[in-house]
Each structure stands twice: as C-alpha cells, then as structure tokens.
Design brief:
The complex is a heterotrimer of chains A (274), B (129) and C (130). Chain A is an alpha+beta fold and 274 residues long. In chain A, 34% of the residues lie in helices and 12% in strands. In chain A, helix 3 runs parallel beside helix 7. Chain C has four helices and no strands. The chains are: A alpha+beta (274), B mainly alpha (129), C mainly alpha (130).
C-alpha cells in the first residue's frame, strides 16, 4: 500500500467511527483491546476478551470500542455520548488509569495491548458499565443547589455577583460528573459511605457562592465523619480530573471552613446551628 | 446503600498501584518518624533538667553512629513533611487578589518556605552563635 | 457500618469530633513543618558534634534557650501540636492499611499517646531550671 493510500484509508476509517467504513479490509496494522466482560445473567465472574482492532493514529479508545461493537461483537456494553470530553459518560480504566476514553488516543498505547475495565470503586452492572446509584445519592446529599429564602423572588432583579466573587468558586463548577476522581480515590475504595471528591467539591462550590445562604445546612452533611473527614488528601482525584476542578483542594478548603464552623457551634450551640 | 452489580474484590495492595499513592504513603509515614524523633527530643530536654553531667553523657551517646543514622532518617522525614505540607498550601489556602488567584510558587514562598527558612535560621543561629 | 438509613440527606449523620482532631492535626502540621527540621539539626547533629569545648558551648546555649519561660511555653505548644499531628496521621494511615473498622478504637492509643507525651513535655519543661 502506498503512503497516500494508507493515509486515505486512515482518514476514511477515522470518519467512519459509527460503522460507515470497513477498515478491516485495508488496515495494515492492528492493536489489541482486552475488554472487561461481565453479563450478570450468564457470568458469575468477570473475564477479559481480546479483540483485534485496526490501528488508526487518529482513533481514541472509545472509537476502538465502538468499532468492536459495530463490527465484531454487538454484545459489548459501554456508555458514551459526546465524544468530546464534555458529557462525562465514557470514563473507564485504561491500563489501570481512570480516563475519558474519548480523550485517550490509541497512539499513546500502540503497539501494546490496551486493557479496558469499568471504573474501579463502583459496582459493575454490565461489561464496561458501572452503577451510578451511589454516586447520584452522594451528589444529592450535599444539596448542590442555591439555598436562600427568597430564591424565587425576582422582584428585586437578579442576584448579582462580581467577577471576583465568581472567581472564588468557578473552578469547582466545571465538574462533568465523569466519576474518574472516585476511581482514583483509595478512600472511596475502602469506605463505601465516603461522600467522595466530586460531591464534596460540589458542596464546596455552593458554599463559596456569594449568592448562596445554605452554608450551615450543607455543613450539617459535610461535617459528618464520612463526608470530608474521610479524605486523607491523597490528591489523585485532582491528578485524574479532566476538567481541572481540583477536588482535593476544594476538600481541604472545606475542612478549614468546617473546623471553624465546628468550633463556632461548640461555643454557640444554638445561634450558629442550622 | 445497596447497589446491585458485580463488586470487584478489595485491593489490599492499593498503595502500590499508582506513583501518587506511593508518594502519599511516604508522606504519611513521615509522621511515624517525626513522632519517634519528638520522643527522643523530649528525652534530650529531660536530660537538661537532670543536670550537666547527665546531659553531657546523653549528648555523648547521641554522637554514636546509630543515633546519627536515626537522626538522618528523622531529618529526611521532617524535611519531606515540610516540603509536602507547604506544597499543599496553594491548594488548601487559595488567596485571591480580586479576580486573580495568587500564583502557587508565590503562595508557597510567602506562606511556607519563607517562614520555614526564617524559623530554621533563628533556631540554628541560637545554638551556633 | 455507619448506621445509615440508605437514603437522602440524613444518611450521614454520624459526628464524632473529627473536626476537632483535624484542627489539631492541621495546626500541628504547620508547627512540625516550621520547627522539627531545625530541631533535628540542633539536637541530632549540632549538639553531639565537634570537640569538647565547642560541645560545651553549644550545650550551654541549648540549656539557656530551653530554660527561659517564653521559650518553654512556645516549645510546649510546638511539641504538643506536632505530637497530635503525628497521632492523627498515624491513625489515618493505620485505617488506610485496613484498620478502618477500628477507627474509633485507634483514637485511644494515638491521641492518648500524644496527650501522655504532651503531659510529659510539660513536666520536663517545668523542671528545667532557668
């Protein structure tokens, strides 16, 4: 195959992620994907299944999994949506590292095999899909919404905020709920009740919002043992976060605010309480 | 919380899985060595109160190779504790100047390395002067 | 293990003073970072080193320093907070190594040890003649 032909077929394959192309006919090189397989109705234990996928420099791991599902094995189950690092659906363990598979290029692994598993620290529902129930419940627990008595009262106009006030929480509002931080957090692995990085950072995001008045109410939840005090500041949540939210930093800041609140309540049990 | 699905076994050797976990463990282990040093430090202080002869005898014992090696380990642990603690300052204590956040190196120098060097210099100078 | 009711905001209601221990840990972390490296250099290397005349001068400077009351009080604060810093970190390290279910029980040796050593420090410092 000439260079032009190879390039053309690569482009063709790249644009045909959803099955329009048949790159297996033209691709010279392949890469092995080892997928974690678990179907609860037939498997009592998970297993790994290997697939040969045409190697394409422009492909990400998600493209390769989609190609397997479209061309080789339709029973492979995985979550994905936007393919551009915004929706937070396609987080998986790739060679042991929690990543968005839409942002993990095959060329960073080639020519070695790529092992894909569902995010660790979550129960597996099917193949690469984990259960999000516990995560959703933890997000809810920190009351991640504006709390104030006049929240629906617009008679005085909008609740204004200066750029300096916005800067205090903006970073923590960038979370896309991809759950990579939960897979990177050893405490989540040890302690199922631990609220975890994303939920605590989200709680902190509202506590730092100048328009919010729910600090005391939120702190009732965040001050409990398995909320922020479970965190030992390993810091890997911030390392794997694709949106640079820095949940580890948020939790340390929240601890300092929480300790102040704790002593305030100790001194003034009634006045400072929720 | 009851979630369905397959639960993978707990990973007991979790701290070996990522370099970041290893760094975390080394940071946490500094506390064991610092606690040990603080006890030795208290023994040294107690010898001051026990009189010149007892203090001289204890200091002489501290010059032995075993104690020197132990103090090398203690120093490494204490310095690593300080480096990691001050390294966390920009994350844990952000300082905003209007919309802009104080940069990490400056925050570490102002709230960490600067005071650390000053305190260390004063303590050491006091003994050497 | 934490007596959760499995739903909503009320599920994590267990408060057992972690905020208090964390505050001591945090303050002690600052103290340990600022002072302990210099203390190690002084008591581990500067006091035992040198010929006898130098050692005598350093021993005298050390005795003088720890004999005055402002230094004694500051030292007690630094030592006690550093001890509680170490105790908290040791406790959480043991929890991370698999003793999580004994998190409450571990408080006894960890914080109890730090308290005992702090009381010892107070007694020792009290006994040093100015």
């Amino acid at each position: 195959m000439s260079k032009e032909q190879a390039l053309e077929s690569a482009e063709h394959a790249g644009s045909g992620v959803r099955g329009a192309a048949s790159p297996e006919a033209t691709a010279e090189r392949t890469i092995t994907l080892e997928l974690f397989r678990y179907h609860p109705e037939t498997d009592s234990e998970p297993r790994f299944q290997s697939y040969e996928v045409p190697y394409n420099e422009d492909w990400v791991v998600l493209d390769a999994i989609n190609w397997i599902k479209d061309h080789v094995d339709g029973t492979v189950t995985h979550r994905w949506s936007c393919r551009m690092g915004v929706c937070g659906s396609c987080g998986m363990m790739v060679n042991g590292e929690p990543v968005l598979t839409c942002a993990a290029f095959l060329k960073s692994y080639f020519p070695f095999a790529v092992r894909v598993e569902p995010l660790v620290n979550f129960p597996v529902e099917r193949d690469l899909v984990v259960s999000m129930d516990g995560f959703m419940e933890k997000l809810e627990a920190v009351k991640p919404y504006m709390i104030r008595d006049d929240v629906n009262d617009t008679s005085g106009g909008e609740f204004r905020q200066s750029p300096a006030e916005l800067a205090k929480y903006k970073q923590f509002s960038m979370c896309i709920n991809c759950m990579l931080c939960y897979a990177a957090c050893p405490v989540v692995g040890h302690e199922e009740e631990f609220l975890g990085p994303a939920a605590l950072a989200l709680g902190h995001r509202y506590n730092k919002d100048s328009r919010d008045q729910g600090f005391a109410e939120r702190m009732d939840v965040m001050l409990s043992d398995e909320a922020m005090w479970g965190c030992t500041f390993v810091g890997e949540c911030s390392v794997v976060c694709p949106k640079h939210v820095d949940p580890a930093g948020a939790i340390q800041q929240a601890k300092a605010m929480g300790a102040q609140e704790y002593f305030k309540r100790f001194v003034m049990p009634k006045g400072a309480g929720a | 919380m009851s979630q369905g699905g397959y639960r993978r076994p707990h990973r007991w050797a979790w701290w070996m899985e990522r370099p970041g976990y290893m760094r975390f463990m080394i940071r946490e282990l500094t506390s064991f060595f610092m606690a040990g040093y603080l006890v030795v430090f208290l023994v040294t202080l107690s010898k001051v109160g026990a009189g010149d002869a007892a203090f001289a005898e204890w200091v002489d014992a501290l010059s032995g190779p075993g104690w020197v090696a132990a103090h090398v380990v203690a120093l490494l642990a204490a310095v690593w504790h300080a480096v990691t603690f001050f390294g966390a300052v920009p994350q844990a204590m952000p300082i905003f100047l209007g919309e802009r956040r104080l940069s990490a190196p400056i925050a570490m120098i102002v709230m960490g390395y600067g005071p650390w060097l000053t305190v260390s210099a004063v303590v050491v100078w006091w003994i050497l002067r | 293990m934490s007596g959760s009711d499995g739903r909503g905001g009320g599920r994590r209601a267990r408060h057992s003073g972690e905020a208090f221990w964390w505050a001591l840990f945090s303050a002690g972390g600052v103290m340990a970072a600022l002072f302990v490296p210099a203390f190690v250099v002084v008591t581990g290397f500067l006091l035992p080193a040198g010929d006898p005349s130098v050692a005598a001068a350093r021993a005298e400077a050390f005795g003088q320093a720890v004999g005055c009351w402002p230094v004694k009080i500051a030292l007690l604060g630094v030592i006690a907070l550093s001890l509680f810093h170490c105790a908290h970190r040791i406790r959480h390290t043991l929890m991370d190594f698999g003793l999580r279910r004994y998190s409450g029980l571990l408080k006894v040796p960890c914080y109890g040890g730090a308290l005992a050593a702090s009381l010892w420090a107070a007694w020792v410092l009290w006994g040093i003649a100015p």
